[in-house]
Amino acid sequence: MATYGLDDWETSMATLALLTQYSSAEFAIRPFLVKYPEATIAQMLTWSRSEQVDLRRLAS
């Protein structure tokens, strides 16, 4: 994800949200935190309030 998606933040966040239901995305989110810290943290705060346990896990 980070190799090919780093320049497309919106699509990558949607993809990570989908993929985390089936596998861990904790390592894939790290390059986005480095390149887009404010936007990614804001997204993670949104995910932390999700009803989906997988998104809350990704946010933590």
From TrEMBL:
UniProt xrefs under InterPro entries: ARM-type_fold
Top-level taxon in the UniProt lineage: Bacteria
Protein's name according to its UniProt entry: Uncharacterized protein
Organism, scientific name: Lapidilactobacillus gannanensis
